Amino acid sequence: MSIRDDLRGEPAEQLEQRVVGMTLERWSGSDVLPGRDLLAVEEALEIRLVYGAAHQRTHKTISVTMRTPGNDLELAIGFLFAEGLVHGAEDVQTMQHCGPPAGPLQLQNVVRIELRPEAQIDQAGLERNFLSTSSCGVCGKASLEALPTLRHTRLPDGFVVPASIIHALPNVLRHSQTVFDSTGGLHAAALFDRYGQMQDLKEDVGRHNALDKLIGRQFLDGTVPLSDRVLLVSGRVGYELVQKAAAAGIPVLAAVGAPSSLAADLARDANMTLIGFVRDRRCNVYSAPQRICT
């Protein structure tokens, strides 16, 4: 069985682990009533990598990230791909959860990815291991030099999408966010074709985690580079989201919120179409406007 065959669908119990109930007090003016609410789960996930020659395997913890459980294997492989540590599904020998259940929900919070002995590993990339919070994908890196830069060639022209399609995407995304409907506490990353048909959607408390899950799924399906797809994210766009999208070959990145200056600079370097404030049939195009048509 191949790595791609191992990850068809997600266990139902993982879907249930994304939300927990909690008692609370509801205040309205001076009135206080007992109540109950649903919250998005946030727990740590450790990503371990096994690599090297068959006679001298190296075991290394690459990252600890705060995430919403579910699609953990896709998150791990998407992260490794965006960091340049894996290049194709053929590099991966096994992927699995390991270790005993832990935390309040007794979840398996360690993922172990073993590469084939012949897989080429970027030693410089291995030095970029870090603690990642749900709100910041680069927090805790050892130095400024460890921050990833654009490691890929400029994205080619040729893909074009109508502005009317871009304007319609947020509404499609909003009506597809099942866990967000329950909690109001998750970011989303969604992939669309040029006709506005959603191809995939992933949610997480961290916007960078949601994108890693999305890219990881496509990586395992063998559809990367995603040269004929539009990516929509539910919040703002920092440079790390642009870097991840560029790694996956995505030509158009749209967001409901604003991009940062560094995100816009990186998008221009990559010849990526970066679009912000997509709402109410309006948007701002910050780079590569040639891909948007009327």
From TrEMBL:
<feature type="active site" description="Cysteine persulfide intermediate">
    <location>
        <position position="136"/>
    </location>
</feature>
<dbReference type="Pfam" id="PF02634">
    <property type="entry name" value="FdhD-NarQ"/>
</dbReference>
<dbReference type="GO" id="GO:0006777">
    <property type="term" value="P:Mo-molybdopterin cofactor biosynthetic process"/>
</dbReference>
<comment type="similarity">
    <text>Belongs to the FdhD family.</text>
</comment>
<dbReference type="InterPro" id="IPR003786">
    <property type="entry name" value="FdhD"/>
</dbReference>
<dbReference type="InterPro" id="IPR016193">
    <property type="entry name" value="Cytidine_deaminase-like"/>
</dbReference>
<dbReference type="GO" id="GO:0016783">
    <property type="term" value="F:sulfurtransferase activity"/>
</dbReference>
<keyword id="KW-0963">Cytoplasm</keyword>
<dbReference type="GO" id="GO:0097163">
    <property type="term" value="F:sulfur carrier activity"/>
</dbReference>
<protein>
    <recommendedName>
        <fullName>Sulfur carrier protein FdhD</fullName>
    </recommendedName>
</protein>
<dbReference type="GO" id="GO:0005737">
    <property type="term" value="C:cytoplasm"/>
</dbReference>
<keyword id="KW-0501">Molybdenum cofactor biosynthesis</keyword>
<feature type="binding site">
    <location>
        <begin position="277"/>
        <end position="282"/>
    </location>
    <ligand>
        <name>Mo-bis(molybdopterin guanine dinucleotide)</name>
    </ligand>
</feature>
<comment type="function">
    <text>Required for formate dehydrogenase (FDH) activity. Acts as a sulfur carrier protein that transfers sulfur from IscS to the molybdenum cofactor prior to its insertion into FDH.</text>
</comment>
